[in-house]
Amino acid sequence: MGLDYSYQALPDPCGPLARAIREPVFGGAFSAVSGRLEADEWLAWGGVWAECAQAWRELCVKHPGLEQRRFSLDRRWDKLHYLVSEARRHGRFDADDWGTHAILGAGLLADHLTGGQGVHLRYSPPDVVQGIAEHLCPMTEEELRRAWDPPRMQECAVYKFRVDNAGEEEWGRVAEAFRGLQAFYRQAASLREGVLVKCD
């Protein structure tokens, strides 16, 4: 088991999200279905699960390509957090900075909205997504590489990080994840979408 972070772009306003915040039962289904927009099997479950899946389906019809506008950092999320947030490099995990917002999301939604391991879903509205894109997109891999400090990262308890597994191969995977994150936020910002952040 481990903590994996994923990101789903959402239109603003987003009816299913607003309902999930208002209604805990629907919110429970939303928490499970979100980020799995193509999962038609939820329809077969009936009840609130089918309602939620149908709401997602309608959202995708109204916003073509929405199901592709998602991204996952898997277990590299805290490595990227350390690299893009100076606050994280100084030991502040949940700081109010663009790098932290990019990785963890800007704010909590509701106490009843959690991912599979009990971590609260978070959301960045379009104006914050725009700011994240403006922060992330100009950053270069050379800048990240200067922040890549394996002994210090281990000292800062970066999630699933070990100095003895921090060679060029792992750096390459982290750099690739960074490029993907940049592209994701660039697209979401261009469409004036918000971003739902989920940890499973």
From TrEMBL:
SUPFAM superfamilies: Hypothetical protein yfbM
Domain of life of the native organism: Bacteria
InterPro entries with a match to the protein in the record: DUF1877 (IPR015068), YfbM-like_sf (IPR035944)
Official protein name in the record: DUF1877 family protein
Organism annotation: Stigmatella aurantiaca (strain DW4/3-1)
Phylogenetic placement of the source organism: Bacteria, Pseudomonadati, Myxococcota, Myxococcia, Myxococcales
